[in-house]
Amino acid sequence: MNFKKSNLFQLKLILTGLFFFQIQSGFSQEEKNSELYKTIMSKDSLLFNVGFNTCDISQFENLYTEDFEFYHDKDSISNKAQFLINLKKGICDKSRPYRYRRELVTGSTEVYPLYKNGIVYGAIQMGRHRFYEISPGKPEQAGSYAKFTHLWLLKNKDWKLGRSLSYDHQMPDSTADQSTLFDEEETTEKWLKENNIPALGIGVIADGKLKQIKVFGSLKKEVSAPYNTIWNVASLTKPITAIVALKLVSQGKWNLDEPIYQYWTDPDVANDPNNKLITTRLIISHQTGFPNWRYMNKSGKLDIQFKPGTKHQYSGEGFEYLRKAIEKKFHKPLNQLAAELIFEPLQMTDTQFFWNAKTDESRFAIGYDTKGNAYETNKNKTANAADDLLTTIKDYGTFLCSVMNGDGLSKKVFDDMITPQVSKEKKNKYFGLGFEIYDLENSTYALSHGGADQGVQTLVFLLPKTKQGLLIFTNVDDGYKVYKKLLLHYLGENGKKIIAIETK
Predict the structure, then answer these.
(1) How many angstroms separate the CA atoms of 411 and 405, rounded?
(2) What distance in Å separates the CA atoms of residue 479 and residue 477, rounded to the nearest whole number?
(3) Fewest CB atoms within 10 Å of the CB: 64, 153, 156, 168?
(4) Cα–Cα–Cα angle for 52, 55, 56, nearest 5°?
(5) Residue 337 to residue 303: CA distance in whole angstroms
(6) If we measure between CA atoms, which residue out of 358, 342, 353 comes closest to residue 389?
């Protein structure tokens, strides 16, 4: 093993040891108003704001223990004496034309106490910092980000730094400059306020399971949005309805390609022969020829605007048409069928098609316009197959995991669902059964659907090949402006490919 690899191995051992100590000790992170937290932060300020940023070497001499050790992922290991020599001859050399400034990333610091026999003897400080380069006559230049872990020890009633680890150095053009956003509450809350986004819900799927739920912002003034915030997800209702139909098909109780008119015919199109061409497949892939909503027509009546099956046109009316046909055949309302096939098996206890006595209004994310004005909440009392589903990140994320894993779907039906049924206007983007399909090449694809209404912007992605997924819920008209950052943050290269498809 060469010297550099040996150093990195030793660094990993120390980090692992600190991590397991933290887990086994059972002690939680210090509150930011505690005396210990304030003490460690004052020592951090002396070490960097005074010592590092002004090259006051005495601060390092006073704050380091005699057996201090510094571990750097790119610059070896050094003891106290060697560190001070490197500092004097390096960044603090007066002949250098530039200096460095260190800035602690706001909200990144965590402090964990260390106890012996119930008495504090030390503390672990973890955080992220960024470095800036200062040159005479030039604007300050942003340098690298890094993570750090400090082991502080209480020596003769004074706090001294015994070990310092600096690692995961990344330049600002990498994802490092975004990594605190959506990972750290204070940074995210600040960003949401700057962008006038009242509340944001994020669900992260990995290994086919919902691994993270993050909810930021407020439901209203001084009322933080809880992790189980209830959201109106608008058109994310459609995948629920589609999966109800596909599960019935998988059970042999419904036919994907059987003409719908045998169960339901809307009076507005009863005399149009194209009515007899409409099937479930065409409805959930948006090829019916229906407008999105009949009220968009001057007449206010439903019509078929082109021969079904010949092209794509997004339609909420199509899903309502399917709802009425299924309800006619099974003599059950859609909400009951969804409960039996999806909600109850998956324990989606906070998901409903409409408002009722079970709805916890205190957890509901009211919709807002871009100026911060709240919309009046439309508390619908009947199920709409295409719109206005009420749900949480946990419930809908659980549903998406079930879809990804093909629960309750036959292999043929699942294969049909992920097979392009009709091409959309963008290259590598299609509509399958109930979901949009993004061809990410190399046999990788993403299933997606979005929702948009007054005060609602929602979007979900599933990557069945890698068992990943992402849910984004917002309660403001322009909530879509968070999409790009979140796709890059959580889906990486696949996120870049999705963005490229959308922006071509």
Answers:
(1) 11
(2) 6
(3) 156
(4) 100
(5) 28
(6) 353
CB count, 10 Å around CB of 129? 19
Residue 367: count of CB within 10 angstroms of its CB: 26
DSSP classification of residue 117: T
Residue 458: is it exposed, middle or buried by C-beta count within 10 angstroms (0-12/13-18/19+)? buried
How big is the chain, counted in residues? 504
Which two tokens mark 23?
Answer: 């887990």
Which long-range contacts link 298-306 to residues 24+ away (Cβ below 8 Å)?
301/268, 302/266, 302/268, 302/269, 303/268, 303/269, 303/272, 304/269, 304/272, 304/274, 304/275, 304/278
Give pLDDT, residue 172. 54
The one-character DSSP state at 175 is G
The pLDDT tens digits for 447-497 are 999 999 999 999 999 999 999 999 999 999 999 999 999 998 889 889 999
**443, amino acid identity:** S
Task: Give the tokens for residue 341.
Answer: 């096939």
pLDDT, tens digit (0-9, with 9 covering 90-100), for 331-371? 999 999 999 999 999 999 999 999 999 899 999 999 999 98
CB 179 within 8 A of CB 129: no
* DSSP letter string, 251-281: TTSS-TTSBGGGT---GGGTT-GGGGG-BHH
Helix extents (H) in 93-197? 185-194
pLDDT in tens, 187-245: 788 888 888 899 999 999 999 999 899 999 999 877 899 999 999 999 999 999 999 99
Label residue 171 by pLDDT band (50, 70, 90): low
CB 139, CB 151: distance < 8 Å: no
Q: How many Å is the maximal CA-CA distance in the chain?
A: 93
Q: What is the CA radius of gyration of the chain?
A: 29
